[in-house]
UniProtKB/TrEMBL annotation, chains A, B:
It holds the Pfam family FUR. Belongs to the Fur family. The keyword DNA-binding applies. InterPro entries: FUR, Fur_C, WH-like_DNA-bd_sf, WH_DNA-bd_sf. The gene is fur. GO terms for cellular component: cytoplasm. It is found in: Cytoplasm. This is Ferric uptake regulation protein. One of its GO terms (biological process) is negative regulation of DNA-templated transcription. Its main location: cytoplasm. Its cofactor is Mn(2+); Fe(2+). One of its GO terms (molecular function) is transcription cis-regulatory region binding. Binds 1 Mn(2+) or Fe(2+) ion per subunit. Keywords: Cytoplasm, DNA-binding, Iron, Metal-binding, Repressor, Transcription, Transcription regulation, Zinc.
DNA sequence: TTTTTTGCAAACCTTTTGCAAGCTG
DNA sequence: CAGCTTGCAAAAGGTTTGCAAAAAA
């Protein structure tokens, strides 16, 4: 396994996962992606770095990395799952129903309230999945 | 089409939809369900009322009713979509990752904050999909 | 060398769809 | 009666899996 210097190699080691070319390529791809690509899109992008990667491996690796907490799966309606590198702080997503664009919402306040609700019910939060489907309002003159 | 007295018949009329035995049966089923069943489960329950209903119709009807705003689709991870009669007030869902149980969270405050965030970005909310995956904490003595 | 990971292709599962027949308004 | 709705069976689309070969530790 190449290039121990990479931050991804380290992340994989810390997660107790074997360091493979494919996993590193996938993490690198996801790190460069500012949008929220789905498996198919990730597949295309990963192949630019390593054209040996198969779609099956993309799916398998995404699940593995999700389980390890390195990647976050976003489950929206009527579309394949999207993915992102686990963000420093949890946030909600606003999905533009017309363009499909995803905007990340700052939500410390939302997080605090949710944390509180869960606490009160005796639950600890495992993960959060929040998206608001919304439509751009005509600009106010 | 039977029994005009039913509240469901009226709801369908108001939505501008044709009143069919299948739609009424599906609405009745969903109204009786306190859990959040998926299409397959709804299919089984509807057949208790009207054994002519097909699974295809369950899916088609759910989509139709969703579009009409009478039904809400809940998209969780790694499982088929679940449905509920459109609730009086929007709420978040807490999903017990061990049991699969879904708990509805009171969230006027969350709603207000989200409304605010969307407003500020110039968006109007179309629908909300929020679920928190959580695990029961051991009871504190 | 042992064990895990991968590629390929086939399978899976949920959801959608074409079509002819049956209802609704 | 015109047009929407349904049942059936087949198809679609995203995701998973069995297996033998390849790579990691």
């Amino acid at each position: 396994m190449p290039n121990d210097s990479s931050e991804f190699v380290q992340a994989l080691r810390e997660a107790g996962l074997k360091v493979t070319q494919q996993r590193v390529a996938l993490l690198a791809t996801l790190m460069e992606s500012t949008d929220h690509p789905n498996a198919e899109e990730i597949f295309v992008r990963v192949r630019a770095l390593d054209d040996s990667v198969s779609l099956a491996t993309v799916y398998r690796t995404l699940s593995t990395l999700e389980e390890a907490g390195l990647v976050q799966r976003l489950t929206f309606e009527n579309e394949p799952a999207r993915f992102e590198i686990t963000p420093a702080s949890q946030h909600d997503h606003l999905v533009d129903v017309d363009s499909g664009e995803v905007i990340e919402l700052p939500s410390e306040e939302l997080n605090r309230i949710r944390q509180d609700l869960a606490d009160r019910l005796g639950y600890e939060i495992v993960s959060l999945h929040s998206f608001i489907r919304a439509r751009k309002k005509p600009a106010v003159s």
